[in-house]
Backbone:
C-alpha cells in the first residue's frame, strides 16, 4: 500500500527534512521537539478545543451577558436540579456537569423546590449522591456515550448509529394518560373516541416521583434544551431529561436545535419531559393497566414516561402538547408533511402512520418544509420539528434516494438489522420489528427549506393507504369532501407503529391523527375548512395503498406512480384534467395522468373480479358511514351549516 522510500509509514507526518535537520548529531529528533505537553494526559487534553459556553439561565435572560462563565454554569445546574426536584422531599438532586468519570467541578447541591414552602430536611441516600448531567451534548459526544454504555448500540457502515428501543418498538396509545383538572376538564376532548384517558393530579405526581427518583438514582442523566416550531412568534421551549444517549440524540435530531446564543437565553422551559422509560410504572398505582405509562400534565407543563423506551413517545407527546397550545392561539396544528415548489406553491400531506407523509414530502424537485408535524397560522405554515422520522422498512436507494443519503453520521437508526462484520444495514429485515425508523436532522435532506416555514398551502393532499383497494389512486375533492375525509381519517393501518398490530386493517382516526388530538376533532376540522376556504386551497385524496384487489390479491400502488400523481397535482396539470364521478363515494377521478397507466386510475377497471369490487366498495362505504355517525351530533361552522354539507359529502348508497 505505501510507496517504497517513505519509510513504510502510510502517512508520514514528519517530513523527511526534519530528520536531516536533527539538532543532535547521530540521534534523529522530532521537529524541534515542541510537544506542548508534559504528560500523555496533557497531550490528550490538547486534542480537544474548548467550545463556547452554552448555558441557559433560570428566569429573565436580560443580565446573562454580565455573568461569569462559572455563574452561568451554576445557574444552569440549578435550573436542572429544580427540574428534577422531588415532589415529596421538596428538593432537587445534587447535580454536577459532565461524565461521572470526568472532573467534578461546579456542583450544585440540592435546590429547594419552590412549590413547597416549609423547608424539609431531606435525609435519604439519594440526597447524598451527585447526579451527573450531560447537557445538550453534540452528536459526536452522544455517539460515544451510546457506543460505550448502551448495549445494542452500534456504528453502521453509513455512519449512522443503530440502536434498539427495547421491548416496545412502537407507541403505546392505550397507556397514554392526561391529567384531568379544573382547567382541562372543560377544554379537552374526553370520553368515547378520545385518545385522552384521564388520570388525576395525585396519580400523576406518584408517577412523576417514580420517574424523578429513578432518574436521580442514576449516575448520569441527559438533558436537552430545545425548541418546537419554526415560527419565531410561537416557539415553545422544551427540556427533555432522559437516561439514554439514544433518547438525547433522537431529540437532538427531532427538535429544533438552539444556537449557542439562544441557549444562553433559554431561561425556564415551557414544558419538561421526564423520560424514565427504562423503568416500569407501578401497576398497583391507580389508573395503571400495564407497566407502561405516558402521562401528560398540561397544567404543570410536564410529561412522564415510564416503561417504554420507544423514542416516538417523546416526539408525539410534544405533538399532543402543540395540539393543545396552538389552537388556543388560533393556529391549526396538523399531522402532515409539507413541501414547497420553486414558485412557492406549498402542499400539505395528511395521512396516518405509514401512508407516505415522509416519503412523498421528501421530493427531490421540491423544498422540504417538514415531514410530520406542522402549524398553519395567519402567516402561513411552519414545521414544529427540526428533523424527520422516516420508516425504513424496505428502504431503497433507488426509490427514496434523499432518505437513503440522510442515513449517515448523526442519524439514529432504530431497530434495524445489520451485518455483524460489514455493518451494512439490511432494510428488508423485520426480525426486530416492521417499524424500523431513521431519525435525522432536517438539514440532512439537501433541499430542506431552512427556516422551515412557507406561505399558505395551495394543495391539501389526504393520503390513505387503502388495503381494500377500492379508493382511486387520486381524486379531486370539494371542500365538503375534504372535510368529510379529514374528519374520517381513513387508512388501513400498516403493521408496526402502534404496538401489536401486525396485519393491515381499516382504521379511522380523525384529522389523520386522533391519537395526538387534545381538543375535539371538529375544532381542528372547522379551522382547516376556514383556512382552506380563505386561502383557496384544493383538496385531493390519494390512495397510496392497494389497487387491482384488496390486500392479499392486489398490489400496493407503485411509489413511482404515486409520485407521478403528486407531480401532476403540484404542477397544476391535474386541476385541468377531465373528471368522472365514481359511484358510492362520489369521487372525481381524472381520466388520465402522464406516466400513470390509465387502467389503474379507475379501480373498477383494475379489478378482475367486478362483483368482488362492488361488494368490497360497499363494505368500505359501510365502515365509513358507521364511523361518521359519532360526529353527527357535533356542530361545525356557523349555524351548523357545514355539518350537513359534510355529511352529504360522504358515501351515498
Ligand atoms: N405508493 C406509495 N406511496 C407512498 N409510500 C409507499 C408507496 N408504496 C410503498 N410505500 C412505502 O410506504 C411507507 C410510507 O411511510 P412514511 O414514512 O412516508 O409514512 P408516514 O406517513 O410519514 O408515517 P409516520 O407518521 O408514521 O411517520 C414507506 O416505507 C414507503 O416506501
Ligand atoms: O409516532 C410514531 O411512532 C411515528 C409516527 O410518526 C406516527 O405514528 O404518526
Ligand atoms: Ca413520517
Ligand atoms: Mn407521524
Residues:
Amino acid at each position: 500500500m505505501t510507496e517504497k522510500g517513505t519509510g513504510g509509514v502510510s502517512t508520514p507526518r514528519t517530513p523527511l527534512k526534519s530528520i536531516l535537520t536533527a539538532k543532535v548529531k547521530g540521534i534523529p529528533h522530532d521537529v524541534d521537539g515542541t510537544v506542548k505537553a508534559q504528560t500523555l494526559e496533557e497531550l490528550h487534553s490538547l486534542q480537544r478545543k474548548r467550545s463556547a459556553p452554552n448555558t441557559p439561565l433560570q428566569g429573565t435572560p436580560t443580565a446573562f451577558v454580565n455573568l461569569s462563565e462559572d455563574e452561568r454554569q451554576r445557574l444552569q445546574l440549578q435550573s436542572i436540579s429544580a427540574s428534577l426536584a422531588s415532589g415529596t422531599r421538596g428538593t432537587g438532586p445534587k447535580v454536577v456537569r459532565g461524565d461521572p468519570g470526568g472532573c467534578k467541578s461546579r456542583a450544585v447541591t440540592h435546590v429547594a423546590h419552590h412549590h413547597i414552602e416549609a423547608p424539609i430536611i431531606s435525609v435519604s441516600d439519594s440526597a447524598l449522591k451527585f447526579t451527573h448531567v450531560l447537557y445538550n451534548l453534540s452528536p459526536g459526544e452522544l455517539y460515544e456515550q451510546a457506543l460505550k454504555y448502551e448495549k445494542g448500540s452500534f456504528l453502521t457502515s453509513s455512519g449512522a448509529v443503530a440502536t434498539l428501543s427495547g421491548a416496545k418498538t412502537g407507541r403505546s396509545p392505550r397507556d397514554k394518560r392526561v391529567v384531568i383538572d379544573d382547567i382541562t376538564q372543560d377544554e379537552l376532548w374526553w370520553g368515547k373516541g378520545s385518545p385522552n384517558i384521564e388520570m388525576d393530579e395525585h396519580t400523576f405526581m406518584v408517577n412523576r416521583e417514580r420517574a424523578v427518583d429513578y432518574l436521580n438514582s442514576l449516575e448520569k442523566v441527559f438533558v436537552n434544551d430545545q425548541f418546537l416550531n419554526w415560527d419565531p412568534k410561537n416557539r415553545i421551549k422544551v427540556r427533555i431529561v432522559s437516561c439514554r444517549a439514544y433518547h438525547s440524540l433522537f431529540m437532538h435530531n427531532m427538535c429544533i436545535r438552539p444556537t449557542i446564543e439562544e441557549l444562553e437565553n433559554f431561561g425556564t422551559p415551557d414544558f419538561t419531559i421526564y423520560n424514565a422509560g427504562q423503568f416500569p410504572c407501578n401497576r398497583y398505582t391507580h389508573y395503571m393497566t400495564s407497566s407502561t405509562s405516558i402521562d401528560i400534565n398540561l397544567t404543570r407543563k410536564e410529561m412522564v414516561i415510564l416503561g417504554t423506551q420507544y423514542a416516538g413517545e417523546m416526539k408525539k407527546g410534544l405533538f399532543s402538547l402543540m395540539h393543545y397550545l396552538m389552537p388556543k392561539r388560533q393556529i391549526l396544528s396538523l399531522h402532515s408533511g409539507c413541501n414547497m415548489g420553486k414558485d412557492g406553491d406549498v402542499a400539505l400531506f395528511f395521512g396516518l402512520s405509514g401512508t407516505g407523509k415522509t416519503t412523498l414530502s421528501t421530493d427531490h424537485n421540491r423544498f422540504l418544509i417538514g415531514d410530520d408535524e406542522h402549524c398553519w397560522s395567519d402567516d402561513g405554515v411552519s414545521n414544529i420539528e427540526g428533523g424527520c422520522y422516516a420508516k425504513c422498512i424496505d428502504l431503497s436507494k433507488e426509490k427514496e434516494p434523499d432518505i437513503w443519503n440522510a442515513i449517515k453520521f448523526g442519524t439514529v437508526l432504530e431497530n434495524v438489522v445489520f451485518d455483524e462484520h460489514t455493518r451494512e444495514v439490511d432494510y428488508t429485515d423485520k426480525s426486530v420489528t416492521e417499524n424500523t425508523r431513521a431519525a435525522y436532522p432536517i438539514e440532512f435532506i439537501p433541499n430542506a427549506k431552512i427556516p422551515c416555514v412557507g406561505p399558505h398551502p395551495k394543495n391539501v393532499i389526504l393520503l390513505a393507504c387503502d388495503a381494500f383497494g377500492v379508493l382511486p389512486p387520486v381524486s379531486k375533492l370539494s371542500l365538503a369532501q375534504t372535510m368529510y375525509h379529514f374528519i374520517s381519517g381513513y387508512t388501513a393501518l400498516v403493521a408496526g407503529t402502534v404496538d401489536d398490530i401486525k396485519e393491515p386493517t381499516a382504521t379511522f382516526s380523525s384529522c389523520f391523527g386522533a391519537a395526538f388530538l387534545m381538543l375535539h376533532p371538529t375544532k381542528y376540522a372547522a379551522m382547516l375548512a376556514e383556512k382552506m376556504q380563505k386561502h383557496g386551497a384544493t383538496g385531493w385524496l390519494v390512495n397510496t395503498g392497494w389497487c387491482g384487489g384488496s390486500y392479499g390479491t392486489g398490489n400496493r400502488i407503485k411509489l413511482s406512480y404515486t409520485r407521478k400523481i403528486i407531480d401532476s397535482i403540484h404542477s397544476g396539470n391535474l386541476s385541468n384534467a377531465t373528471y368522472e364521478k365514481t359511484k358510492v363515494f362520489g369521487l372525481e377521478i381524472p381520466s388520465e395522468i402522464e406516466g400513470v397507466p390509465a387502467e389503474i386510475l379507475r379501480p373498477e377497471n383494475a379489478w378482475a373480479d367486478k362483483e368482488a369490487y362492488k361488494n368490497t366498495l360497499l363494505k368500505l362505504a359501510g365502515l365509513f358511514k358507521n364511523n361518521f355517525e359519532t360526529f353527527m351530533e357535533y356542530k361545525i361552522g356557523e349555524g351548523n351549516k357545514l355539518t350537513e354539507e359534510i355529511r352529504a359529502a360522504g358515501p351515498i348508497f
User: Anything to note?
Assistant: Residues 335, 353, 372 surround manganese (II) ion (ligand 4) (CB under 6 Å). The chain is about 30% helix and 20% strand. The mean pLDDT is 89. Residues 610-629 form the longest helix (20 residues).
